[in-house]
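Case study 2.
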Amino acid sequence: MYNQNSILIVAILFVLILVANEAGYRLGHYYQARTDEDVKAHTNTIQAGTLGLLALILGFTFNMALQRYNNRSQAVILEANAIGTTLLRTQLLPTPYDSITHSLLQKYVNLRLQVSNTEYGMITERERLGKETKQLQHEIWVNAVKAARLDPRQVTTGYFISALNNMIDAHGERNALLLLHVPEVILFLLFIVFIMAGALMGYASGLGRKRTSVPAMMMTFLICLVVFIIIDLDRPKRGVIKINQESMWQLKDA
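Prediction:
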């Protein structure tokens, strides 16, 4: 489902809920004459319980998506801080590795910004940037090794190497968080409960004398809107809600 367009998913869900609502209404209207007030009251109780379950699953899923979004945002800040520390500690390196490494780290910042601004569908471009990132990390590490051979002191080159390790670790952690999404089984469960709730609302409306079409339509729209936000939060590389890269931009020309 992650590869599918979020608007398409929400549109299909909206249509399915409306179809289920119509089917439930016709079924309820068919049994209307043979249903007493006790059955109607019992149906309304079941409907209220289903909507409560719907709210519970919806809140749980929304919180899960929001937590992942917050973790990705935090990972950007942590990586930016790690790169910033590494940039500062290039001053501890012996000449000429201080200026060379500083220049390489500036290229690394630009490369990380390019990765952040690359759309999800640009697979070839993302793969190319990923390879360049690995190569640049290796080049920076080679310069650190050469500097350590020239100046093996812990309080100079050792501090830089420690910062460089943290920078590489922050890169790996950020990439790992980008791959964490809300499990599809939870989304499918959410969609099934939505559709069943729509059918139950239609059935309860069919048992009554008048149909409440407008409130049901509005509720369906709001449900689909929340689902769209959940899916959008779960897709860091595309959509309306994107992760703020300001902390990384501040490293340019630092």
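The CA atoms of residues 13 and 224 lie 7 Å apart.
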